[in-house]
Amino acid sequence: MTDPPLTIVVSDANVLINLMHVARLDLCTRLPGLEFVVPDHVRDEITGANQRSTLDRAVAEGHLRIATITDPDGIALFAELTRHLGRGEAACLVLAVKNGWNVASDEKRRFRREAASRIGDDRIIGTADIFMVAIRAGLLTIDEADADKEELEKQRFKMPFGSFREVIGGASRR
């Protein structure tokens, strides 16, 4: 029997940085059924030495893959989107549109509206969603995810709930 096809998720810098803040970038390779891709434009946005080194190591070890927009239609769409979005956000959206991929981003407002209209709300995930998938897969406990949530709040990233217990319903491997 063959494995089901992977869902490819193109990740924006904000999600990658959130995962790096709590030393959970490894979730990108451990979440069942998902493969994470990083646009070269997003890689360029990650300029902190430690974060860049962590990302480059994950790429070198084959845990993340770098993607580049090369086709003329994709380049034209990128040029159009960068009039209103950052280069990383635009690159994520172009790759998602052109390849049928999902997007990992915590961006709101214009990016969220643009992504929803071009690929649909159901193909957009954020940091909290990644933690919920990890909890359901038994890779993290709710307590571990809540500790990471608390740390992310110190880094000025707030999730719209008090505990993962509220959104998961109490499921945990411990």
Task: Give the tally of β-strands.
Answer: 5
Structural class: alpha/beta
Please identify the top-level CATH class: Alpha Beta
**Major pleated sheet:** 5 strands, parallel
Structural domains: how many: 1
H/E series, N to C? EHHEHHEHHEHEHHH
- Going across the major beta sheet, what is the strand order? 3-2-1-4-5
Percent helix range: 40-55%
Q: What is the rounded Rg? A: 16 Å
Structural shape: globular
Q: How large is the share of residues in beta strands?
A: 5-15%
Mean pLDDT: 92
Query: What is the terminal-to-terminal distance?
Result: 31 Å
**Shape-level CATH architecture:** 3-Layer(aba) Sandwich
Tell me about this structure.
The chain has 174 residues and is α/β, with parallel strands linked by helices. It has one domain (7-168): Rossmann fold. It is 53% helix and 11% strand. The protein is built from ten helices and five strands. The chain has helices at 13-21, 27-30, 40-45, 49-60, 72-81, 87-99, 109-119, 127-136, 142-154, 164-168, and strands at residues 7-11, 34-39, 65-67, 102-104, 124-125. It has a five-stranded parallel β-sheet with strand order 3-2-1-4-5. Helix 7 links the parallel strand 4 (102-104) and strand 5 (124-125). It starts with 6 loop residues before the first strand and ends in a 6-residue tail after the last helix. Residues 170-174 have low confidence and may be disordered.
